[in-house]
Design a protein that fits this description.
With 300 residues, the chain is of the alpha/beta class. It has 11 helices and 15 strands.
Length: 300
């Protein structure tokens, strides 16, 4: 039994600092509910906070439409034994941020998370050609905070308008992401009974599941599993393989299934169980809906 919420406030662990896209996703998921954001420097720290029950839940980025899956987080989720209980899509708008009074021509360096840099590759490559250094950092919002705290002229960051507002910084250029259909899929991770009883979770229509399994090293075994899922009308929306450390050329397969009939879904699990090894249900939840390209994101 997990402890009750403290003072009716939900503590939500995020990777990154205040103003990070994780915070925006958390506030959108828990719209209308009082939450306390708990920043974590790394995703490993975030999962440690969850496993140690220091927070009620966590919001974790799992996939970006431009940069792909965050592979580390799939492993962290599987190894943690924690459960996905919800999903939130976010239209990510990247902005070039610097100290007040700076201009793009003043900048000598730009810092941000490597995935944010990847999302803005056309824009940052133009600056690289002009001699601007593009440097990886732990987080978008923490980069903005660092520039403010150190009062670093000539240094910019890629991040959210929320981060710019929080740290009293200027946005030199809005929307510098290369592809405007830039979405990140976040998942809510929790084992808290109190969180599970919240309306946003308790009233979900369960129509999606994330599974993980390995397979015997036999010819055609994966195609058999996929054929069975197709027979039961499971819509396979994602498949990702990751190597099993210490077992050469064998893999864990992570799959997302969307379905209309929960009973058929359960039947499909029983049908594939004899074909797989270590079948693990990482979560059953309601399929999140990606916003359209023109959807406002509270400006990100």
């Amino acid at each position: 039994m997990t402890p009750p919420l403290k003072q009716n406030v939900i503590s939500v662990a995020i990777q990154g600092g205040f103003g990070a896209y994780h915070e925006i996703a958390a506030r959108q998921f828990f719209d209308g509910i009082n939450i306390e954001i708990v920043p974590c420097e790394t995703f490993t720290d975030l999962f440690n906070e969850l496993q140690d029950k220091k927070v009620d839940c966590g919001i974790v980025a799992m996939e970006n439409s431009v940069a792909g899956s965050l592979l580390q987080n799939l492993n962290l989720l599987r190894e943690s034994g924690l459960t996905i209980m919800g999903e939130q899509y976010l239209r990510v708008v990247q902005n070039l941020i610097a100290l007040p009074g700076q201009t793009i021509d003043n900048l000598k360096e730009i810092h941000s998370h490597p995935i944010a840099i990847q999302q803005c590759h056309t824009f940052v490559n133009e600056l690289r050609r002009k001699g601007v250094r593009i440097l990886d950092a732990a987080d978008t919002a923490l980069s903005v905070k660092w520039i403010r705290e150190e009062n670093l002229a000539g240094v910019g960051a890629l991040g959210s308008s929320l981060a710019a507002e929080m740290y009293h910084m200027d946005i030199l250029k809005k929307g510098v992401e290369t592809n405007k259909r830039n979405f990140t899929r976040f998942q809510l991770i929790t084992e808290s009974d109190a969180v599970k009883e919240l309306e946003q979770i308790a009233n979900q229509q369960i129509n999606k599941a994330t599974l993980c399994f390995s397979l015997p090293h036999e010819e055609g075994r994966l195609s058999q599993v996929l054929s069975v899922l197709s027979f039961y009308n499971m819509n396979l929306t994602k498949i990702q393989s990751l190597p099993i450390v210490g077992v050469e050329w064998e893999y864990f397969f992570y799959i997302d299934l969307v379905f209309k009939d929960y009973t058929r879904y359960q039947q499909s699990l029983e049908a594939i169980r004899p074909l797989t090894d270590h079948l693990q249900i990482l979560g059953e939840y309601q399929n999140g809906q990606p916003p359209s390209e023109n959807t406002s994101v509270a400006e990100d």
